[in-house]
Design a protein that fits this description.
The chain is of the alpha/beta class. The chain has a single domain, classed as Rossmann fold. The chain is built from six helices and seven strands; from the N terminus they run βαβαββαββαβαα. The relative contact order is 0.18.
């Protein structure tokens, strides 16, 4: 049976259980109980999650994301919490860390999903143009590291408003199915698993 590790922010929390259920009998799907938050947080704690959850080092695939926390703006600050330069450096560090911790795993990075900009207040906000910019940074950096890209941004960009649970997440049954099926559509072919219906 294949072993898949899912790591990421609260977007991941919207599809991890769905993917695990769909792949029951095909793959062991593991993920930490906590949100991955920022890219630097993932870099710092991925080794701890591996150790504390007894994942071992024999994962076949690691599907991960980080970005929506990194593009947060607080108040009228025009610079996001993580600068583009730091984001690029940290993604490279994570990709290399994954190769050390899970040496036989295929590494797949999920692009950050779009938001409803008007849903945020003046003290905490995100912009889709910036999410797209950071996604481009991720593609540039991670392709060079040999990491595959799962374009969840495009998948969720045209999702109907009714599939959203708030301005950021897709915690509705329909939203969960859309994003979960996209993840399955990415990872299953890479592992030679027939996509469950």
């Amino acid at each position: 049976m294949k072993k898949i590790i899912l790591i990421g922010d609260s977007i991941r929390s919207g599809y991890d259980a769905y993917v695990k259920e769909k792949l029951a009998g095909y793959a062991e799907v593991l993920y930490p109980s906590e949100c991955g938050r920022f890219a630097q947080y993932v870099y710092r704690y991925i080794g701890d999650w591996q150790r504390e959850n007894n994942w071992g080092n024999d994962a076949d695939l690691v599907h991960w994301n980080a970005g929506l926390w990194d593009v947060i703006h607080l108040g009228d600050e025009e610079t996001p919490i993580t600068t583009p330069e730091q984001y690029a450096v940290t993604l490279g560090q994570i990709a290399r860390r994954i190769r050390v911790l899970f040496p036989r795993a295929i590494s797949v990075f999920a692009l950050s999903t779009p938001v409803v900009e008007e849903g945020y207040g003046p003290d905490f906000w995100r912009r889709n143009a910036e999410i797209e910019r950071y996604n481009e940074i991720a593609k540039t950096v991670l392709t060079k590291e040999g990491t595959r890209i799962d374009d969840l941004y495009t998948v969720m960009k045209d999702a109907p408003a009714g599939e959203r649970s708030d301005m950021t997440h897709f915690y509705t049954p329909e939203g969960t199915e859309r994003i979960g099926d996209a993840v399955l559509g990415c990872v299953c072919p890479l592992l030679g698993i027939e996509i469950p219906r």
